[in-house]
Structure to design on (387 residues):
């Protein structure tokens, strides 16, 4: 199958593979250790594990956008901040 | 704790939808991500540029202005259409011959295609041959949407209100019709005022449909393209160049696929974020009020 029209690059392919791995990991996690039922976090709304992944990914995207817009440091630092943010979301939200 | 569901066979029923969404949305989105980090001069040749398009875009006044116009447009549209839709739905008859008449006249604007709505208002507002433009000019009002940015904005907003308030009305009307008479009778016995009936019976019962109405109207107004493109073409100047129009100009007009892809992604993320916030906040309010009421 010719996928040249999609203009794949190694970094973007890696990005999507990581997203796919996250989804697979979440599925295995829920099968092995069930507990993804809705819970009330510090933001006072119910979230499941899947919701928390969504909030983490969406928030991470905005962390990177704001980093690009306002901070001149390397984008890898934004990734570090995003990972810390995702851990916080999974613990407290 | 909620008991774990054992039968998960229903998930296979979702498979066809997943495949359709994968082909129609996920694969194109992946392509847009790929384009956003590369530059192309056509002929299917791409050059890696990293995050440069995002950096350029986030620093450009053109993007900021288009974004601000888009947000302002959606805010104005929601501020007008939601209260107006509720008011019209409340005023509509609940029984008798008036019901079909009102419902059909409300549904009519929704049946007209976007580009036709644009053409109707483009002609309607013209000073030389349009009924609205000519009448306003005859009354001595200086109205010309092709030259005056304020007139262009007013025309597009009135057009959108005309086109889409009906949707809010129909949704709210459906919500109102689902309220049993017993609620109104109880309110009457308690001597509740008209405002109290609205605040404590009608509004909570319309919560779900209002959530759908706000989401639909927000997403649709945030993506508006055809009508302003037909009426003003983004002008006068750039005054009605919303993000969608700017995006098409960039992608197809200038063939800048890289910057256009970066803009599409930011556009998509903003829509996703705001829709999620609306959904979470409004469904949370709905749950709180239903818990409080029970």
């Amino acid at each position: 199958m010719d996928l040249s029209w999609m203009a794949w690059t190694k970094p973007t392919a890696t990005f999507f593979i990581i997203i796919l791995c996250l989804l697979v990991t979440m599925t295995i996690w829920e099968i092995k250790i069930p507990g993804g039922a809705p819970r009330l976090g510090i933001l006072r709304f119910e979230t499941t594990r899947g919701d928390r992944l969504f909030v983490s990914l969406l928030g991470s995207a905005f962390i990177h956008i704001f980093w690009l817009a306002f901070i001149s440091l390397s984008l890898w630092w934004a990734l570090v901040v995003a990972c810390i943010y995702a851990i916080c979301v999974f613990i407290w939200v | 704790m909620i008991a774990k569901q054992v039968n998960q066979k229903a998930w296979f029923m979702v498979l066809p939808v997943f495949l359709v969404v994968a082909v129609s949305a996920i694969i194109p989105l992946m392509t847009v991500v790929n384009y956003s980090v590369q530059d192309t001069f056509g002929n299917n040749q791409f050059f890696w540029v990293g995050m440069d398009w995002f950096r350029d875009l986030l620093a450009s006044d053109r993007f900021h202005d288009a974004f601000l116009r888009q947000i302002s447009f959606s805010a104005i549209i929601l501020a007008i259409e939601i209260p107006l839709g509720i008011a019209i739905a409340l005023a509509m008859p609940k029984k008798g011959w008036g019901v079909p008449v009102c419902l059909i006249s409300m549904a009519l604007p929704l049946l007209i295609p976007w580009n036709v709505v644009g053409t109707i208002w483009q002609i309607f507002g013209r000073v030389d041959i349009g009924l609205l433009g000519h009448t306003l000019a005859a009354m001595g009002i200086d109205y010309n949407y092709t030259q005056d940015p304020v007139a262009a904005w007013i025309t597009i907003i009135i057009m959108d209100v005309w086109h889409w308030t009906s949707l809010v009305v129909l949704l709210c009307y459906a919500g109102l019709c689902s309220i049993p008479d017993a609620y109104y009778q109880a309110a009457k016995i308690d001597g509740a005022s008209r405002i109290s009936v609205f605040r404590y019976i009608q509004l909570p019962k319309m919560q779900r449909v209002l959530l759908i109405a706000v989401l639909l109207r927000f997403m649709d107004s945030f993506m508006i393209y055809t009508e302003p493109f037909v009426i003003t073409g983004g002008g006068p100047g750039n005054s009605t160049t919303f993000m969608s129009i700017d995006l098409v100009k960039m992608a197809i007009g200038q063939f800048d696929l890289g910057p256009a892809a970066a803009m599409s992604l930011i556009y998509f993320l903003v829509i996703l974020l705001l829709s999620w916030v609306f959904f979470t906040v409004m469904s949370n309010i709905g749950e709180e009020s239903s818990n409080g009421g029970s």
Q: What stands out?
A: Chain B is about 75% helix and 0% strand. Residues 257-293 of chain B form the longest helix (37 residues). Chain B has a mean pLDDT of 88.
